[in-house]
Here is the input.
Amino acid sequence: MVKQAAVVVLLAFLTGAARSAGAQSLRGLRGETEEARTDQQQPRRNAHPVVAITFDDLPAVGTLPAGETYVDVAKSLVSELKANGLEGTYGFVNGDKLASRPGGPEALRIWLDAGMNIGNHSWSHMRLTTNTAEAFEQDIAQNEPTLRQYGEVRDWRWFRYPYLEEGESVEKRRAVRAYLSEHGYRIAQVTLQFADYEWNDAYCRCRAKQDEAAIARLKQSYLDAAAEDITLAREEERLVFGREIPDVMLLHETPFTTLMLPDLLGLLRKQGFSFESLSQVESDPAYADDTDAGSESGGTFQGQFMDSRHLPYPPVEPDPYQQVSQLCQ
Ligand SMILES: [Zn+2]
Here is the structure.
């Protein structure tokens, strides 16, 4: 858990750093070419954006507020998803968490009994960049008995790469992709992710201190970060694909994301989004494309194309994670 948290913070830092560097170069570019740009050159925004909501690190992840259990979190989450007609939502499972998270098996059973789906997120949340393709493939295979046992007749052959890392070399990327394809898997890509897990520890601290003002700030900053990520991702998609593509949002089943889900779904609706299943979204031809390039940092689907084509990232607001980590200390 500690190791994973450290890696997650590092990933958020690296993502932020990459974006900042990109933002600088785009600002420079805009400064030089602003006069030359016309309204006609601005791609039009898709009037009816769609998104599939997905969750990683099932059966349970994140610190719990005092008095709450992972089973409570799972019950709240599925009840909110069902209230919004989001049965069939995919949750990506690490089999090793069933033993290490108190109530893990029950939490997973609640997810499935509510009509949600599960997919493979590797047995141990293995990082591909620091492991061989063979070890990674073994870790995928090790997760299958659990998926078979819990998923039964469901289509669980969807794979979500831990840390969104698909291999630092093109050889490794190709090897794992070939393995996935041979074993009938589709890759569960991600276009929207704002590191939703980063708010959870601060939320637990603020709950313990009963600091309602700080919790209100956390809620606002979470929604602001989500809104900014959506705007940026859509802009990146226009840069990469020449249009906005159906989106896949990555969330985690933490207590804070569970609490925020109604507001987050409300934000998406306000922005015109409607909800589709993962397979509906990925039936868009854009998802048949592949950078076929190694990447140390991995990242979102469109982000990997941004990197492989050396496209400058759109400008970003200052990183909220530093401020969040200091709240209620
Ligand atoms: Zn994960």
